[in-house]
Amino acid sequence: MKKIILVAVVLLAGSVDMQAQLVRFGFKGGLNYANQNGSEITVNSDNYNTDAITSYHAGLVAELKLTDGFSIQPELLYSTQGATYKNAVEEFKNELGYLSIPVLAKFNLNKTVSLDLGPQASFLLSERNEFDVKNAETFEFGVAGGLSLNVTKNFFLQGRYVLGLTEASKEAEVKNSVLQISAGFKF
């Protein structure tokens, strides 16, 4: 885990070779509305339906301005995801904690709104569930897309959808999907 965090910090710090006015750092946090979707969701040979959970994300942001209308925004976030599993007999919650590293291309539609698109790599840090099965995959790759709204020069709001492209579980064919609402501050 220490190696993963060190690599992420080095990647963010290595991006700062540009002039200081072209790079802005900040932090953000917000709510996740997360679920796991798949064709066959079974645990111990029982079929389950999933319901979304509300969780959170928080972390660091860097914005590298390349042109007036385009910038790159790498982030280093702690994000909790998962779902509530239900069948006719029981219900339990599976919550996964990830170190997520989205790298988004920001297309400025005007001075206030930007379209954000890009890949996201996530590394599993913790798994908390109400059943005793350690079945989550340790790496997840996904794509993210959304909109950013610059309320002031430093304060921003974001809405984003992250779709997992790799399996989140070793026992079931499920993928994470997360709707994120964030607020943040850039220096």
TrEMBL record:
Pfam families in the cross-refs: OMP_b-brl_2
Q: Where is each Outer membrane protein beta-barrel domain found?
A: 19-167
The residues forming the signal peptide are 1-20
* Protein's UniProt keywords contain Signal: yes
- Keyword Hydrolase in the entry? The reply is no
Which UniProt keyword terms apply here?
Answer: Signal
Q: InterPro entries this protein is in?
A: Beta-barrel_OMP_2 (IPR025665), OMP/PagP_B-barrel (IPR011250)
This protein's name: Outer membrane protein beta-barrel domain-containing protein
Source species of the chain: Flavobacterium xanthum
